[in-house]
What does this fold into?
Amino acid sequence: GESFQFKMRAPKQDTEKAISELDKIAVVPNPYVGAASWEPANLFRAGRGERRIFFVNLPARCSIRIYTVSGNHVKTTEHEAAIDNGQEPWNLVSKDGMDISYGLYVFHVDAPGIGEKVGKFAVIK
It folds into this structure.
């Protein structure tokens, strides 16, 4: 005749904590090396295989805008995920479908109701 009761709350975002953690947003790997040893090699096709970086420590919902250092817009990515998934991959392809070139890039993360973060990353040969 024993019974147990459980009360659960849905996950929610603590806005104050999210604001304080905006500075933790980063790009990995940074710098991105054009021929990184951890990328899979494809023996049946020309080329190095998949190129990818990750934006990490993101809030649950935000926009990521990527620019060249001269201010040209490269790509906008929308991140919308569960609270426990704070990363967004990017395959280093521009909004025009072209592989990006080597150089320095600026990213701008805009999280509605939380704030903004601007950072930079490099893609080297």
